[in-house]
Amino acid sequence: MSLHTFAQKVLQLVVVLLVVTFFSFCLIKLIPGDPVSKIIPFGTNLQKAQLRRDLGLDTSFISQYLTWLRDILTGDFGRYYNNNASVSSQLTKSLPVSLELMVYAQVFAMLFAIPLGILTAYRSGSKFDGATNTIAFGLLALPNFVLAIILAVYVGAKWKLLPTQSTLDPFPLSPIDNWRYMLMPTIALAVGQIAVYLRLLRSDMIATLQEDFITTAKAKGIPNRKILLKHALRPSSLTLLTVAGLNVGALIGGAVVIEVIFGLPGLGYRIYQAILAREYVALQSYVALIAIAYVLVNFAVDVLYSVLDPRIRHVRAAA
Amino acid sequence: MSLLRRRRSTEFIPAADRYPVEPLAGALLEVTDIRTHFETSRGLVRAVDGVSFSLERGKTLGIVGESGSGKSVLSRSVMGLLPKNGVVRSGSIRFEGRDTSQLAPDDQRKLWGTQMSMVFQDPMTSLNPVMKIGNQITEPLLYHLDISKSFARETAVSLLSSVGIPEPERRMKQYPHEMSGGMRQRVMIAIAIACGPKLLFADEPTTALDVTVQAQILDLLQAQQRERFMAMILVTHDLGVVAGRTDEIAVMYAGKIVEKAPTRTLFSQMRMPYTEALMHSIPKLSNPSHTRLNVIPGRPPDLVSPPKGCNFSPRCPYVQDKCRKEEPPLVRAEAAGHEYACWFPAGTPQGRAALERNVVAGAMSGVTAETVRVGTTPIGGGIKSGTTTTAPSTEGST
Ligand SMILES: Nc1ncnc2c1ncn2[C@@H]1O[C@H](COP(=O)(O)OP(=O)(O)OP(=O)(O)O)[C@@H](O)[C@H]1O
Ligand code: SF4
Ligand SMILES: [Mg+2]
Q: What is the structure's pLDDT at B3?
């Protein structure tokens, strides 16, 4: 990708970021009536006036947004009203947990999906392919919260193999403990993804294996393993990459149900708590943060495309 | 290493006596009665249906026929490149005296690249789009030959320059989409000859290319074939392409060889009406390069249920009742190495009589009548009729 097109991409990115943060900001405006009396219905007038000034409700809408944006960019995400704790200190504890869960779930899903996708494509139409696809479809039909509950009830509560409720704060950082808490949420999140990734890779791979250049590779006399890994995998991975990128965004804050079921103190769990406690300001920051993460990850995916496929670089440069 | 073989003179030597008699006894490749049928929902597609030929070391065989006559399937069958599922194969393929048709996949693979390799039809799709040219060439070198990475790179650079690619060092780092079709086909040739195969298949290597570079690529193939003393099977639908470049020509129709002869003999004494029709349809230089043969009236037969008797009978200007009942066997002609399958061969009294009967009967449609007229023109002479083809260069058009 040429510098020029890269600069263009970055510019687009900035615009998109402005748009998503603006809409996150608007969330608080969706609260009907006076937001202040919704947020602290039993507050004193003094408290209400303080909050009004905190929210900048006495200034114009755009300047409110700009102030809020500046605060977010400088790491000031506002405060909880109930206990006056700063949202950013909460974030520094909960974001790593969610990121960890997201990375584990993605890696776990890929570890199964990539080899299985390659093999089922290579042996498409075989019994192995049929069985794998049937199982994948079955897993796809199983919602992750159902799987999570099954795991929590049996592995956690009945057989007591793994802990289910981590009310621990800070989150256990010793590797073994960490794994014990992470394993079930990871599996619950990853299983459905395995099925999705597997089917995406398989169908792209089957198409790639029909290409002429695969016959060329075959006629070179190199073994099938090399043909699959060196020639077929890369051109077949673009769709997989796209969807995995979208999932990163979704998993960072979207694992709400899973985090709640397993009591993992991640971002999703905090969002859940913020909703219950009507912590609108915190909620607004969380939503903005997730939106930003979503956009950034997909920007990275976009850049990765041109690393994977030089033709995209070329087309972009020409455009 | 075969790459380092002594350079041979590349000035023109008539194809037939280009090489001294090889001391190694036996043909390089001997194909006997091979059949390749595809199982499809419509039935069995008889893409190759009983083909036999042999090829000496360092010689060139042209395989000519219309689109769909089974040329690609034949060359892929011989090389063993076809999938095993849904394909019914029979017959024997002996390469250097060894039957390769029953080889296990791993043993089969050992032949590819080092003993036999293939240049494919479409260089736009035959190179890996996401891999640098250099890596695509060094890949087989590194896999098959016990050489270092740096030596493989040097070899690849010299291969690129030997196939006429300027600035080979720079090209090594490029991707296929940064090159023209002709350049890509040169790269394909470099890949195919990298490990010094003894047999090179070129499956319509110029069909997808611009007319202006077609001759260059054919010349390059011929030069490399001579220089490295490879045997070559040159597949084409254009008799003009093989005219000056092959030792022998096999004409294919509906999965069968219908005429086979040393190149000169074929052009001077063609017997099969189909060969004659092909000859009249040699594309003009002014035609767009992708033009397929449609000059011969009618269409090739359905390979699932071919016609009774001679496959060519529905389109043949010489056709007689016998042709529709009995299939003509491949028989020897007077000239050495010349064979054909026809009851009323062109250029013979029977053939002339058959053609006259058809003209007189006037039972043919307008289109076919034209073919009849074409058929009566002296072979090898200037051709009239709808297409004003330039007189086909029967020899020495290199
Ligand atoms: N995998 C396959 N399954 C079914 N039929 C096939 C298959 N491959 C080829 N055929 C059929 O076999 C016949 C011969 O095909 P082939 O590709 O060898 O023709 P060709 O002479 O190379 O033609 P062209 O000049 O178009 O390349 C065609 O009728 C084709 O439809
Ligand atoms: S003359 Fe008869 S046998 Fe000969 S090609 Fe024509 S139809 Fe076939
Ligand atoms: Mg073909």
A: 44
pLDDT at residue A77, rounded to an integer: 83
Facing residue for A220 by CB, picked from B122, B175, B191: B191
Q: Is the pLDDT of residue B20 over 50?
A: no
Give a yes or no: residue A81 inside a domain: no
Amino acid at B140: P
The CATH number covering residue A203 comes to: 1.10.3720.10
Q: Per this entry, what is the length of chain B? A: 398
Our count of domains for chain A comes to: 1
pTM: 0.80
Q: What is the per-residue DSSP string for A40-93?
A: STT--HHHHHHHHHHTTTTS-HHHHHHHHHHHHHTT---B-TTT--BHHHHHHH
- Indicate whether A137 belongs to any domain: yes
In which domain, by residue range, is A273 found?
89-278
Residue B184, classified by CB atoms within 10 Å of its CB into exposed (0-12), middle (13-18) or buried (19+), is: buried
Does A318 fall in a domain?
no
pLDDT for A273 = 87
**Residue A110, in any domain of the structure:** yes
Q: Judge whether A123 is closer than 8 Å to chain B, CB to CB.
A: no
Cα–Cα dist B194/B176, whole Å: 18
Q: Is B308 on the interface with A (CB under 8 A)?
A: no
Cβ-nearest to B130 among A212, A226, A234: A234
